[in-house]
UniProtKB/TrEMBL annotation, chain A:
Belongs to the leucine-binding protein family. This is Branched-chain amino acid ABC transporter substrate-binding protein. CDD domains: PBP1_ABC_LIVBP-like. PROSITE patterns: PROKAR_LIPOPROTEIN. Keywords: Signal. The keyword Signal applies. It comes from Nocardioides astragali. Residues 1-22 form the signal peptide. Residues 43-355 form the Leucine-binding protein domain.
From TrEMBL, chain B:
Keywords: Amino-acid transport, Cell inner membrane, Cell membrane, Membrane, Transmembrane, Transmembrane helix, Transport. PANTHER family: BRANCHED-CHAIN AMINO ACID TRANSPORT SYSTEM PERMEASE PROTEIN LIVH, HIGH-AFFINITY BRANCHED-CHAIN AMINO ACID TRANSPORT SYSTEM PERMEASE PROTEIN LIVH. Belongs to the binding-protein-dependent transport system permease family. LivHM subfamily. InterPro entries: ABC_transp_permease, BCAA_transport_permease. This is Branched-chain amino acid ABC transporter permease.
TrEMBL record, chain C:
It is found in: Cell membrane. The lineage of its organism: Bacteria, Bacillati, Actinomycetota, Actinomycetes, Propionibacteriales. The chain crosses the membrane at residues 27-49, 61-84, 90-107, 127-151, 214-232, 263-280, 292-325, 337-356. It holds the Pfam family BPD_transp_2. It comes from the Bacteria. Keywords: Cell membrane, Membrane, Transmembrane, Transmembrane helix. InterPro entries: ABC_transp_permease, LivM-like. It is a multi-pass membrane protein. This is Branched-chain amino acid ABC transporter permease.
TrEMBL record, chain D:
Residues 1-25 are annotated as: Disordered. Residues 1-11 have a biased composition (Polar residues). This is ABC transporter ATP-binding protein. It comes from Nocardioides astragali. Keywords: ATP-binding, Nucleotide-binding, Transport. Residues 42-314 form the ABC transporter domain. One of its GO terms (molecular function) is ATP binding.
Length: 382, 323, 379, 319
């Protein structure tokens, strides 16, 4: 008897748990809700590291996309943006990609934010015909090898960026002894490789550092003996800030130039006074004077737009433009994005057959950190 | 491989290594003391350090000091930041002990369980600064790198004649500060009554409790001391590097833990030796190759040392080896 | 929570299962296995609520299942090291990485190693080591790594071993990232081969879309490994490990070659980890060093400990929960790591012996608890 | 795999009085094969052992003959247990050597020495507390088993089974006839049988499935002996086996030691209790302060003035 009553208890518990779960489940599935437009009820996926050490490189672009969606005016369509945290880990990204691919209400994906997860998922999206627009994956091979139709990106790949940066270093700064540092990661290393290639003899020494490193004393002492007239760093803000501070502390006054990994309004805040005069190269034109993007962004999220925020805004805008245009299926979306041309925040947007923004559309700009803000300095040709 | 670079500037690189190692050593103290008394790797200790760096930022922000302030203001603000960081870190360490370890000790759980709750606490603390506080207060909390104003500006103090080595004020503060704090701690553990309790529990917990040493109090003391040292390390760190981030503790913690084991975990002086050796080894390796190999070198040094001295360089425990 | 647990305990399911006739247990086992194979298609309410793909922010159920099974394999392997032999290994991800990298290095036509072989041996552009050959290579590489790591370090005391293994895991990852001309460095290797199979609908049998096939493949391997792990546990090897854990010196004097058995535990754990990594790399068809951070090692240890160290079922449950829950509750997005940390602390404080401890460990724990309480009373 | 599950009674730990059922069964199966009796089995050849400045053993020299029961006595701290530790490979002597069957064993690892044929018990009992009594003994049996780790894993090493080993189930029987039975299975089975036999031999078979930590003290002592015997040692060393025993239990123990010798084992006993030592041993070696002070038959040793002096100086030890 006792036993059987216990059995019932368990059954009751299980049933209760089931109800709770089902409650969660139903609320979630209703998330899409009934929309005003019967046939324009879509989701746009956003895939990237929203938590973990690398989230700071991704979050601003996601916020940018959110801002674009918020500012979008369209009575006909109901569009939601669904964020998927991958922690930058391909292992976590593939289930997400398979899910998005399988859910027909997803009409496009912004991402992947990093090259690794993009490489691991692009064939999944290609199979399902989901259009991808990446805001920050720069690895050359993403569009140059194993091309898939659905992949597009708003950032030029490392080869071009590297050339532009090298040109800035030699032509604008007149540097003949450049010290090149990278962060040994998938973003910084290939970029620095291209810079090195283009610089040729103008590079005096190359050093590699680690992500998460804060003490750069060995690099600094190498700089001291190399006496460079410019320093290039391929990496992200977290390491650039202490590197810059230690350089200046050691009395190295050579101009400091970084890649687009440093481009973001939060750069000035992170590097502090040591970063005064540091140059960030970005394949993005200055945002038009009359644009309220920075102000809107700050109002919405409480912080200045960080790295790739404008690209995130642009990526979302492309999708939204497609919906405005009447794209209602994945095929139509793909077709629209392939042929899209328009003025974006970061650049004149268009995609070539590989999914890259055509060379001539990209203008490379050097931005100088003045009093904590990045001020456009000069346009550079790659 | 560039051995010339190493040997031509050996004094300079050694000094760099000592600077780096001093901070490792201070953080390593927390690991080593907790291990000495509880035979437990406190995985949340790296976050105790992280909390300290945020506290320094908080103090500077509240005081509103910035670079270029007067000497008195600089010294005052730095001392205040030091005390606040020590208090905050010690408080965090104590909270971790009360929440994550004490209930387990009461239940007599095996050491592996402490490891997991430690990792859990570490995640909670990291996410508190990366997510929770950002959610409630917005920036500067969050996942971005935050600048801490360099209240104390780097100046060249003097040049060592003969070797042409320029010594800056921050270097002096870091190295001297770390060594003074370690000496103070060493003296405290060896000379004071409370310190005797610590050593007694480290040596033989059962006998110590028979002799009237309150084990819980000793353990709390150990966490507080270790935390305070991490707080000191946090201040020195911000002086040198000027930044903080929600996950800044992870790598420092890993290095400090390695340093503690290298010197002989449970041994206070071992932490110093291990920290300095690790710092120097990393800088040498970064000079010969580049920084991407520094971590590999650190671990290889560790393995080699442990193969010849299985209990670390100075070996023994907090109790046995006269601290 | 505790009520559910009490009720569960009151049922004495384990005792009943142990008392049940052999054929009942066998049929039960077959049913469980059949259910596991059916899981990707589970769509009957209310059970379907365990699926991860119901909500708008969910992720693909079959892919998640595959990842769960891969982590289960790793957890079962690590359980041999931690649970059976009592050695704390914080660098398990190193073996996992080795497994993944060996299939990539030898199986991918675009890996520098294969390219070197192609030009050296005059083989075609498309040539690479076939997948079936990659399995023994992966197992052998991780096994050798296990022995190389274990032989000099197993004499160290527990916590020293922990940091050395942790360092090993980091060395593997950093080396993979830095040796650009062997491993392609940070860029990683794509084109990792998949198991051979018939083409269906113009796609290879094992492709990136149909994750359930991968799941079944991994599940089959998992079942095989569980079977072997049980064999080990209930043999002279399992007894030797237990004896070493309890009193290493006494065991040695009773003729147990402690070092040899510990090394075997390390090697077996390593090769199982390598196998898990191989499955992961092959499904992913892409391997990069950043997929093998230290945190994954901690996660593996947490799986073994949360489930109940020393119990294979515990390791399975731990791997399941720690992989499944974050995927099931994707709604919480950026809050998941925080919740994860809180959950780790809470679960361990409430149930320090693990969720399903082995009988033996549970008893050990009860004894320790009484001792701790007695000690507390004394003070 | 399920046949190994320990079925164990949860209510345990009661310190039931030690009642040893008189063991009348024939333990033919337990006897071991040994060489001719009377030959020197073990020789402690002028062994000196120093720890830093402390001399634990000073030029100790004696030997054990096959088939005898040798007593090793001496006051506390005389170096008796140290002597055991040197013999079983825990310590390596500073000078001199230990020879077993003519082979030098000093410096060899403990598990190797066990495989050569020396087993021991401990003064302070060191069982595997979380294993059942039976499992404890099986660990000892494993020392003589040939199954390798891979053998236990894949069970590919097949043996043609004898008629007795064949299973009853006809299907399994014919399979076993064709494919043989894995050596692992056979060894597991024989180890189990032998272990039970040993538990019976020492008289504690009634609690075979209980965790050893829950066994009463006397049972634990006997279990240690059974575990040591399971490794089939030519030489069995007992370190104060009667410590904490009452006179009746001591009588039983003396009987057990004799029966062990009858199985073919040579026995070396460390013991304080003079009555027991004098009653059971064939010969006695006396140590004091790490030096041998006397050797001879029990009667001779008992009369030796040096021994008497040594023991009078340490009256506590007469217990």
């Amino acid at each position: 008897m006792i036993r059987s009553s216990k059995t019932w208890q368990v059954a009751a518990m299980a049933a209760a748990a089931g109800l709770v779960l089902s409650a969660c489940g139903t609320t979630d599935t209703d998330g899409g809700g009934d929309a005003s437009g019967e046939d324009c009820n879509f989701k746009i996926g956003v895939m990237g590291a929203l938590s973990g050490a690398n989230a700071s490189i991704v979050l601003p672009s996601v916020d940018g996309a959110e801002l674009a969606l918020k500012q979008w005016e369209n009575d006909e369509c109901e569009v939601t943006m669904e964020k998927f945290d991958t922690e930058g880990d391909p292992a976590k990204a593939t289930p997400v990609a398979t899910q998005i691919a399988g859910d027909e209400t997803f009409i496009g994906v912004m991402g992947g934010a990093f090259s690794g997860e993009t490489r691991a998922t692009k064939s999944i999206y290609a199979d399902a015909g989901v259009t991808m627009v990446s805001q920050s994956a720069t690895a050359t091979d993403l569009t140059q090898e194993d091309q898939v139709d659905v992949f597009h990106r708003l950032v030029p790949y490392d080869d071009y960026q590297g050339a532009a940066i090298a040109n800035y270093l030699t032509d604008e700064l007149g540097a003949s002894k450049v010290f090149v540092v990278d962060n040994s990661e998938a973003y910084g290393e290939p970029l620095a490789d291209r810079v090195e290639e283009t610089l040729g003899n103008a590079m005096t020494q190359r050093d590699k550092t680690e992500v998460g490193q804060t003490d750069f004393a060995p690099t600094i002492s190498k700089m001291e003996s190399a006496q460079p007239d410019a320093v290039f760093y391929g990496g992200y803000i977290a390491e650039a800030a202490p590197l810059l501070k230690q350089m200046r502390d050691a009395g190295i006054d050579a101009p400091f130039v970084g890649g687009d990994g440093l481009y973001g309004a939060d750069f000035g805040n992170a590097v502090g006074p040591a970063g005064e005069g540091a140059v960030v190269m970005c394949p993005c034109a200055p945002i038009a004077e009359d644009s309220t993007f920075a102000a809107d962004f700050e109002e919405e999220f409480g912080a200045a737009p960080g790295a790739y925020a404008a690209e995130g805004y642009d990526a979302m805008s492309v999708f939204l433009a497609a919906l405005d245009d009447g794209a209602r299926t994945r095929e139509e979306m793909e077709e629209f994005v392939d042929g899209y041309t328009g003025e974006g925040l970061s650049k004149e947007i268009a995609f070539d057959e590989n999914g890259d923004v055509p060379k001539e559309n990209v203008s490379y700009w050097a931005y100088k950190n003045e009093g904590g803000t990045l001020v456009p300095e000069v346009e550079v040709k790659p | 491989m560039d051995f010339d670079a190493l040997f031509s500037g050996l004094d300079r690189h050694t000094l760099d290594g000592i600077t780096r190692g001093s901070i490792y050593a201070l953080v390593a103290l927390g690991y080593t003391m907790v291990y000495g008394v509880m035979k437990l790797i406190n995985f949340a200790h790296s976050e105790v350090f992280m909390v300290g760096t945020w506290t320094v930022l908080g103090v500077y922000t509240v005081l509103g000091v910035s670079a270029g302030a007067g000497l008195a203001a600089v010294i005052g603000a730095t001392l205040l930041a030091l005390i606040a960081a020590m208090l905050a870190s010690a408080g965090t360490a104590l909270a971790v002990e009360r929440i994550a370890y004490r209930p387990l000790r009461k239940k007599g759980a095996p050491p592996l369980i402490f490891l997991i709750t430690g990792i859990g606490c570490s995640m909670v603390l990291v996410e508190t600064f990366g997510q929770v506080l950002r959610f409630f207060f917005g920036p500067p909390f969050g996942r971005v790198t935050v600048n801490i104003p360099s209240v104390l500006q780097t100046r060249d103090l003097f040049t060592i004649p003969g070797v042409d080595l320029t010594i800056t004020n921050t270097r002096v503060i870091i190295i001297v500060g770390a060594i003074v704090m370690m000496l103070a701690l060493d003296t405290f553990v060896n000379k004071s009554r409370l310190g005797r309790g610590v050593r007694a529990v480290a040596q033989d917990p059962d006998t110590a409790s028979l002799m009237g040493v309150n084990q819980n109090r000793v353990i709390m003391l150990v966490f507080v001391l270790g935390g305070a040292m991490a707080g000191v390390a946090a201040l020195l760190y911000t002086i040198q590097y000027d930044i903080t981030k929600f996950d800044i503790g992870f790598i420092i913690g890993l290095k400090a833990f390695t340093a503690a084991v290298l010197g002989g975990i449970g041994n206070l002086r071992g932490a110093l030796v291990g920290g300095l050796l690790l710092g120097i080894a990393e800088v040498y390796a970064s000079t010969i190759w580049s920084s991407e190999w520094a971590n590999v070198t650190a671990f290889v040094v560790l393995v080699v040392v442990l193969m010849f001295r299985p209990t670390g360089l100075l070996g023994e425990s907090l109790g046995k080896a006269r601290a | 929570m505790s009520q559910i647990l009490d009720t569960y305990r009151g049922l004495k399911l384990r005792d009943r299962l142990a008392e049940a006739p052999n054929w009942v247990r066998k049929i039960g086992m077959l049913l469980v296995i059949a259910f596991a194979f059916y899981l990707p298609f589970l769509n009957i309410l209310p059970f379907a609520y365990i699926r991860t793909d119901l909500s708008a922010r969910g992720s693909d159920w079959a892919s998640v299942l595959f990842l769960i099974v891969v982590y289960m394999i790793a957890a079962v392997g690590l359980n041999v090291v931690i649970g059976f032999a009592g050695l704390l290994d914080l660098g398990y991800v190193g073996f996992y990485a080795l497994g993944a990298y060996s299939v990539a290095l030898f199986g991918s036509p675009s890996s520098p190693v294969v390219e070197a072989l192609q030009s050296r041996l005059g083989l075609g552009e498309e040539w690479a080591v076939p997948f079936a050959m990659c399995i023994p290579i992966a197992i052998a590489m991780s096994l050798v790594a296990g022995v190389i790591l274990g032989a000099p370090t197993l004499r160290l005391r527990g916590d020293y071993l922990a940091i050395v293994t942790l360092g090993f895991g980091e060395i593997i990852r950093i080396t993979a990232r830095n040796l650009d001309n062997v491993t392609n460095g940070a860029t990683g290797i794509s084109g990792v081969p998949v198991p051979p199979g018939p083409e269906i609908g113009g796609r290879p049998f094992f492709n990136t879309i149909d994750a359930e096939r991968w799941y079944w493949f991994a599940l089959t391997i998992l079942i095989l490994i569980i079977f072997l792990a049980f064999r080990l546990e209930h043999s002279r090897v399992g007894r030797a490990w237990l004896a070493i854990r309890e009193d290493e010196d006494a065991a040695a004097i009773m003729g147990v070659a402690a070092f040899k058995f510990k090394l075997w535990a390390f090697a077996i754990g390593a090769s199982v980890g390598g196998l898990a990594g191989l499955l992961f790399g092959s499904k992913q068809q892409y391997v990069e060093p950043n997929a093998f951070m230290v945190q994954l090692s901690f996660l593996f240890v947490a799986m073994v400990v949360i489930g109940g160290s020393g119990n294979i079922y515990g390791a399975l449950l731990g791997a399941f929960l720690l992989t499944y829950l974050p995927e099931r509750f994707r709604e919480f997005q950026e809050w998941r790591p925080f919740a994860f940390g809180v959950a780790l602390v809470l679960v361990m404080i409430l149930r320090p012996q693990g969720l399903v401890p082995s009988r033996r460990r549970a008893r050990e724990f009860e004894d320790r608890k009484t001792e701790a309480q007695e000690a507390a009373v004394d003070v | 795999m399920s046949d190994q599950t320990i079925q164990n009674d949860p209510e345990t730990g009661s310190d039931a009085p030690l009642t040893v059922a008189p063991d009348t069964s024939d333990h033919e199966a337990l006897s071991i094969e040994v060489g001719p009796e009377g030959e020197t089995l073990l020789e402690i050849d002028h062994v000196t052992l120093r720890f830093g400045g402390v001399v634990a053993l000073n030029d100790v020299h004696f030997s054990i003959k096959r088939g005898e029961i040798l007593g090793l006595i001496g006051p506390n701290g005389a170096g008796k247990t140290t002597c055991f530790n040197v013999m079983t490979g825990v310590y390596t002597p500073t000078a001199g050597e230990v020879r077993f069957n003519g082979q030098v064993i000093s410096g060899t690892k403990p598990h190797k020495i066990n495989q050569l044929g020396i087993a021991r018990t401990f003064q302070n009992i060191r069982l595997f507390p979380e294993m059942s009594a039976l499992e404890n003994v099986m660990v000892g049996c494993d020392a003589r088993h040939k199954t390798s780790v891979l053998g236990a894993l894949f069970r590919a090493y097949r043996v043609r089974p004898s008629e007795d080993d064949l299973p009853d189930n006809p299907l399994k029987r014919s399979l076993a006839k064709v494919f043989g039975i894995s050596r692992h299975t056979l060894e597991e089975r024989s180890g189990r049988v032998r272990s039970m036999e040993l538990l019976k031999f020492v008289g504690i078979a009634d609690r075979a499935h209980e965790l050893s930590r829950n066994l009463p003290y006397g049972y634990q002592r006997r279990l240690e002996i059974a575990r040591a015997l399971a490794t089939q040692p030519e030489l069995l060393c007992l370190d104060e086996p009667a410590a904490g025993f009452n006179p009746a239990e001591k009588e039983d123990l003396m009987d057990l030691i004799r029966r062990i010798r009858d199985l073919g084992h040579t026995v070396l006993v460390i013991e304080h209790d003079m009555k027991l030592v004098l009653g059971v041993t064939d010969r006695i070696v006396v140590l004091e302060f790490g030096q041998k002070i006397a050797e001879g038959t029990p009667e001779a040793v008992a009369r030796n003035p040096k021994v008497i002096a040594a023991y009078l100086g340490e009256p506590d030890d007469a217990a």
